[in-house]
Specification:
275 residues, binds zinc ion, 36% helix
Length: 275
C-alpha cells in the first residue's frame, strides 16, 4: 500500500524525499513552488537529477504535486486567471520531468457568483492546461469543503465540470475525506456515492484527514487521525476498503502546532491497516 504525507521542499527539491523517508512514508505530495505566490521558478537539470537518483535509492513511490492554494480558475480577473493557469501548466511540465503522477488542485471559488456563471471559464481553462500538459500527466481535481463559494464540494459539481472536458483521460480526482465529511457526505456510504457519481476509475489519490469541524460544517479544517470528528473507526473502514486497495493515501494533517504530519502520524496510519 502507498501511505504518505504532504511534505516540504524547503532547502532543495530533493529534500522532500528525505522528509518522507524519515517519516516512514512511501508516497508523497509537495508543492513545486512557493505556496505564497502564483509565480514559479524552473528547477535546474542538476536538481532534477539529484532528485531522480535519490528517489530510486530510497525506493519512494508515487509523487503528487499540490497546486498552490491561490489558484482560482473561477477568478473574475483575467490576469489572475492567467497566472493561475500558468502556475498549473508549470506544475504539469515539472511533473513530467520528475515522473510525478500529476497536479492536485482546488478549482477555486466563484465568490458567490455561482458555478453556472463561471463553468465555461473553468472548463476552457482546464482544457487549455490539458492541451499544454505532457502526455501521461494527470490534472487532479480535489473535492472541496464548500467554504465561501469554493467549487467542487459536491460530486455533482465535479462531474458537471468533467463532463465538459475534452480529454477526460488526463483528468483524475483527489478525494479528501475531511472535505467530504464537511460537505455532508456520510462516511459509511461515501464510496458508494463516489462510485455512482464519478466512478473509481477516475480516483487518483485520497487525502486522508480527520475533521476538526462538525459533519456538514462546510469548513476546511483538518485534524490528526483519531483526534477528529470522523473518528478512527470510520477512517479505518475507509483505509481498508478493498475498492481503495491500489489508491495512495496522503496525510495533510496538522501534526503538532500545524507543522504537518509527523512520524507518529504515519505510524498510526500504518497501524490502521488490517493485514
Ligand atoms: Zn486535501
Amino acid at each position: 500500500m502507498y501511505l504518505g504525507a504532504h511534505v516540504s521542499i524547503a532547502g532543495g527539491f530533493d529534500k522532500c524525499l528525505d522528509r518522507i523517508s524519515d517519516l516512514g512514508g512511501n508516497t508523497l505530495m509537495t508543492f513545486a513552488s512557493s505556496p505564497r505566490s502564483l509565480r514559479t521558478k524552473d528547477f535546474t537539470q542538476e536538481e532534477i537529477e539529484k532528485y531522480n537518483k535519490k528517489k530510486a535509492q530510497l525506493n519512494i513511490g508515487p509523487h503528487f504535486f499540490h497546486g498552490v492554494y491561490l489558484v482560482n480558475l473561477a477568478s473574475e480577473s483575467k490576469s489572475y486567471l492567467k497566472a493561475s493557469v500558468e502556475s498549473l501548466i508549470f506544475y504539469q511540465r515539472f511533473a513530467s520531468q520528475i515522473e510525478a503522477v500529476g497536479t492536485i488542485f482546488h478549482v477555486g471559488s466563484h465568490k458567490g457568483r455561482g458555478l453556472s456563471e463561471t463553468l465555461t471559464q473553468i472548463v476552457q481553462s482546464i482544457n487549455f492546461i490539458l492541451d499544454n500538459s505532457p502526455k501521461g500527466i494527470k490534472l487532479i481535481l480535489e473535492n472541496s469543503a464548500g467554504q465561501g463559494g469554493t467549487i467542487g464540494d459536491t460530486f455533482e459539481e465535479l462531474e458537471l465540470i468533467i463532463n465538459r472536458i475534452g480529454d477526460k483521460s488526463k483528468i483524475g480526482i483527489c478525494l479528501d475525506t475531511q472535505h467530504a465529511f464537511a460537505s455532508g457526505y456520510n462516511m459509511t456510504t461515501l464510496l458508494d456515492v463516489f462510485d455512482h457519481k464519478i466512478g473509481f476509475k477516475r480516483l487518483s489519490v485520497i487525502h486522508f484527514n480527520d475533521s476538526l469541524t462538525e459533519f456538514n460544517s462546510h469548513k476546511d479544517r483538518h485534524a490528526n487521525l483519531g483526534e477528529g470528528k470522523i473518528g478512527a473507526e470510520s477512517m479505518q473502514k475507509l483505509l481498508n476498503d478493498p475498492r481503495l486497495k491500489n489508491v495512495p493515501f496522503i496525510l495533510e494533517t496538522p501534526g503538532l502546532n500545524h507543522s504537518g504530519p509527523r512520524k507518529e502520524d504515519i505510524a498510526y496510519l500504518k497501524s490502521l491497516v488490517v493485514q
